[in-house]
Amino acid sequence: MDFVLDQLNKGKRFRALTILDLFNRECLEIYVDQSIKGDECH
Asked: Could you identify which of 7, 19, 24, 29 might form a hypothetical disulfide with 13, taking C-beta atoms 3.0 to 4.6 angstroms apart as the criterion?
């Protein structure tokens, strides 16, 4: 589980919560939003 932060050309920021299986290096899920709060992640 890790957060990735980036921004678009016009300066709008977004976050991505990535959930990875480190054993086989498979991405299980990516949740992207402008703001991610703890109660939104399930």
From this structure: 7
Query: Residue 23 and residue 28: Cα distance in Å, rounded?
Result: 12
Strands (E), the chain: 2-7, 13-21, 26-33
Q: 1-42, pLDDT tens digit by residue?
A: 888 888 999 989 998 989 999 999 898 998 888 877 666 555
Largest CA distance in the chain: 37
Say how many domains are in the chain: 1
Q: How far apart are CA 10 and CA 20, in angstroms?
A: 29
Q: Report whether 32 contacts 14 (CB < 8 A).
A: yes
